[in-house]
Known about the structure:
By secondary structure, this protein is α+β, with helices and mostly antiparallel strands.
Amino acid sequence: MASGGIQTGSVTNWYGGRPTRGPYDRVAPVDAEFYEQQDSSYSGAAGVDEHRRNTEIPDHTTRRDDDKTAAPQVRRLMSDGPSDAPRASPPVPWLPYTLRWPFLSGIIAFAFLLELAVVIVHSISARHYGLTDDDESDGAAVGSKFVPTTLAVIYVLWTSILFDDIKQTEAFARLASPSGALAESSLTWTAEAWWDALFDSFPKRFRKTSWALLFGTTTFILGFLVVSPLSSTLVVSQDVVFTRATNFAQINMASSTPLQANPFSATYFRTISNVLQNVTTSAWLTEKYAVLPFWPDKANPAPLGPVIANSAAQTWTANTTVFSAQLDCEDLHLTDLKTAELASHSLPDLTETGISLDLSSQSGCMINLRLENISSFATAGGSLWSSTKDITNVDAARVYDNSLTINTCPQDELVIFTTPLSNGTDILSNSTVRGAACRASYYVGDTLATVALDEGKTIVTIDEPRYMSARTPIPDGIANISAFSDVFFSPNWTTHVNTEKLAKTNQYESPFAYGPDNLLSALYSFSPEQLVADRNVTMNMQRIKQQFLAELLRDAFDQSSSASPLHTPGNVRDSVRRLVVVPAAAIALEVVIAVQLLLLAGIFIYTRPAIRPLGLTVDPASSMGLAKLLANEPDTLQSLENLYDRPTKHLNRDLMGKRYQLTDEGIRLTTDEGTAEKEKPDNNQKVKPEKVFDFWVLLGFFALLASLLIAIAVLYWYNNTYGLYQTAFVYAFDISVNGTDFGSVNPASIITTLVAVCIGLWYNSLETTLRRVQPFLALAKKPVIGSKGISVSYTSSYLLWAAYRASKRRHLVLVLICTGAFFVEVFTIAMSSLWNREPGMISSTYEVPRQLQLRNVPLLSSGHLPEGPSERSYKVDAISSLFSNMKASWIYGAAVQLSLNGSEPPWSSGGWSFVPSDLSSIPHETVQHAGNESEPLALTMNVTLETSAIRGRLECSPYDFLSNDSVWLSEWDLKDTELWNTSASPDILDRGYELGLPIERLDDSAMSLQLSAFFLNPPPGVYDGSRNFSGDWTSFFVDDRRLQCCENLTGKEIGESSAGFWSFNEGNGTSYPGVTDTWPANFTVKWIRGRPVEGYKAAGEWISDDARTHMIWAEKPQMTAMNCMPIIETANASVTVSSADHRVLDFSILDEPRPDEYAWTNDFAIYQTEEAMESGSIDYYTANLTVSHGVLFLLGLLGAADIDNFGGIAKGTRRPEGQLENVEDQTFNIRDPGLNVDLMTYSMLSLVNNDHQALLDPETLIRTAQQTFSAVFQHFVNNNLTLDSGGFAYQTLNEKFPDEIGVPRVPQNHPQPAEVQGPAATATLYISRPVELLQMSGPAAWLSMALLLYLLATCAVLAIVSRRYNKLLPRKVDSIADVAVLLAGSEKLLTMAREESIAAVKHDPASTARLGWFQGAGGARWGIELTDKVARPDPLLQQEENEGLEDEDAGAETTAVAGRDAEMQQRWSSMVNTSRAPESPHHTSFRTAG
């Protein structure tokens, strides 16, 4: 055969041999005229050129008798229609569904919508700082993870299907070209891998660029390499800060200006709390500024507390007014200290020796101060802080009048600090004096303020540079600064912080302090030495002045909050967890999908039949479809007939050089350019059968799936047990270009998605192979009808549709595998949703030695035994020491916590206190580097340990006799001149009521004494004159002093007032601190409400005599009182604390609480050495005292409200004024118009939002008293606590009394403490460190593992059946040639292909065929041929056909459980291993590849 074409008319048949009837003799000759008509009707769709239309058709030796039937036969072949179809009907070009315009338009539209969706969500996220709040709901998880990945998976799946159909039709497109195509680029061409397809799409010699294949491959690559992985990290959960404009309301102070300095007791309390306890009393009062409050317009009322409640973390920003005080000081240095003769204060004509000291500054300010040697300023030291205009009025009893001389000082304030100067007679050589001259300035200005709201705290800051440039001195129209200065330097401070009584250096003397000096001194623990040593003391002075000014403004804020607010614009910045689009991922997806849109448009254009004709009218995927393309081309059949035994990899070489062309009648061999040059094969070489499924590949895939399953399971366990916090897991890459931040990406989701995609590609390659070979496996197993064999193809059926079609044909393995292919897509979605990066904790353990345990040894202190009846109790020294450190005052601390929303003490929560351990030894180590942290994670750790716990609580019950007011209330006729001094008493009431009952007159000159108490048992009718009444009783005040405060009077209009104190229930003849001999002692909590008037005087008293004034109530007051028993109990607990501040985060009580048996055992036992107890010993009145912590706590708690309890004289020797409440003492009291309470009751009132009426409810009174008692005990337990020495309720391990304590003076009453077994020597700390965690989603992990199990099962099934499949089908069927060689010698099958349509063949019993050995015209061969055995049609498949469920153009499936017939195996083995000589032109020998 010459090259360049097929010669015609010179041979009798196409074999070149003798004209013998062969398998192709039935092919009827077709004239050229017919083809010309077909080409013209085809309109070029099949790509037939002029050369092909003029090609001469060879004449055949054998023809049908009636040549007129030839043309209709060809028409039936090409149109696949019925035999009587009209000649004029043109064949319709066939395209796969995915290449038809509806599908392509749909996928382009879907891609466009994806692009639009990404752009929209990216834009929304950029504009609104995220898409929506992350409420950690299932909807948020679905929206952020599953939806993007699901859409991406669907899209990539469609692009993969499109890519598959482009690959499957590429060979036909090449064949349909005008010049045809060489066999190696058409018939034997395959592109299983995407990289092969990409490589083959580029131009080569004799072949142009395949644009459709290039575009399809690129689209697919971008899909699975970019779109799928990035979709998993497109939307993430992040903490986002965003800003929005808001209208704010602002305090309107117009009605309060000019501001007046009228401080309340609460004003001093808040100032002292802030300075000493460092507690924020209002969020708007900072250390340096007072900010005019503002808040969102819709919020109500004005938020003035220390913490502004808010539902989420926010930041408010607005312009507002700011106030500040500034103190500029110049140091005064001591220039002279000497003795001087001073005029006697009592005898002006005489002189006394005193002290003169001179101080001066660099600017020339000079001060001369003269002191009496015995003044407390000289003997005890102290401080003097006053304005220059008032400094000469300072307490004349302690500093002489006119004793201070000031020269040329421009400043308006002076402060002098000194250590003791004199021992009473001589100047001390080691004394130190220092001072300062100061000028106070007060400013106001508008500036930008920022309010940061977070959980449990509020921080207000201002734009300081802007304020400093805008501030001006406060004008008189806004505030009366002169009045403020007068109030600030007034002696009122002594009422609230009494240095004289709180800081005695001995029984009779304390450092000097006056006015604000009391607070300044308390800040230095009343130590003159500390004051003098601190070079920054003026900073603390400014802090006190600023805070007092701020608290006065706070009072003004309160008063103005009810007025209509002003309005000002501002911004609110919210910090919330939101679902955010990662800019880097979004931009990448936008670019890639946009490129894919262009590629899809190119695919749409380059797959149109006019540009890329396929030359097909039917789907060639099935055996019958391809047979129709071969049946009328004898040359093509001849070139393929004897290659059935050639392995797939050798077919390319065997057909090399042959050029084929797809014409209207089929695939035509046009030239044979390389036959002569081809190397002849070695027929003696053995060829192994090809493996459709390689067992070792399947085993490798199984191992990969199993490894992935194990990895996910291990990671899931590790995630739940320890947490995935290592840097490799949590590191996130910050993506920025030229300083523009494009977000951060954690590669975990991308990697797992890529892994899932790779798993899917591998699995889908197996599934694709099985779908392609399944019809051949069915044919190889047994003869099957056309609908199950030669007419079926699963190539274009996917996922569940393929599984459904396979189930109809009972191809069970294919059902499993195709279902697995669907699960692979679900697996990709699950894997992409596997990870979420979020803050978390990791745990470790650490052992530390225990240092403390609950106290079982009484507290030890020293005391001075009274030397006479007028001296105070020896117990007072120990009790008063509880209040010496005001910076750590436990009563103040509890009141601050409850009334000002302060924090609980360290190692305390829920009323419990927990024995602490030393956490400082825990190693701080960096456990990760997360990459994209905006700021380093704090070094704080959460520590959990088991320890002992202690708490105080109350059991209270109401008094049932209070409804009978005659037992606690007296009624008076205030106009009775025999009883009342009406001229010296207020002219307001005619009759009234007084708390308590009268006692019999002591003499005739005075009215009856009033018992300021009430009995707790039915009272006796008459009390004797000596006041030795019987029965338990309690007082209205903290002790039996008579209440004197506080009325709420405006003119003669009487307002409501309240009083409340906690007081011991005492027995006959007892007095504080000897209130009881039995512990624990009950006490009474009271709340009294009514309308009192102060100042009523009894008859016979002078107008100026306030010794026996009375407070009378206009009506019967209401009183609620509770009898409360204190309980201190202990338990074992597990507690979690922050290592930074020891704040308790969580706790649980591990057992039933039990009473603390050591809390009440010891009531100030006296210990002395035997020498000291001897009469006349110098140490006779010095003793060691031991007391239980419960006794000390209760005595301190119920005595603090009357600081005179700790005075220098015995209570029984008081003067008449000593029988009255000391209203000048407000150290642990709050006394304001209408309110007189101790700090415990003030705390209770704060707990009900200052609702005075609420505390009359017994249940409310009990609840608030219980909460207050527990809080106070917590602060007592933590007061002065150290790990080295313990505290009031904790002791060191196995603590004992020292040997030098002495012996008890009353041994039988004070036994030595028993030995108690302490706790374990070490404590195990369970440490939780804050880290970034890669959190594994439980549902996604379980779903992934379940799907992997299914894939493993299907892979195992496929591996098991692969051996049988390889025996049934010992060659691959990847290319056109692979199938064509099985059909080339099948005479009956080809005859049916010429005569019948595919639709007719499907269910025709005559279409029963088998893949195996059969006897053809040329001899025995292996291929597909019709059999004489007729298979019964499958009614299910017929029903599917009738219902339109089966698409004859779609095919593709792979299932196959087939057997292998022994005869076929033997003959195939014989074929590939034995060389046979050709017997005739019709029987080609079995060849083996060389």
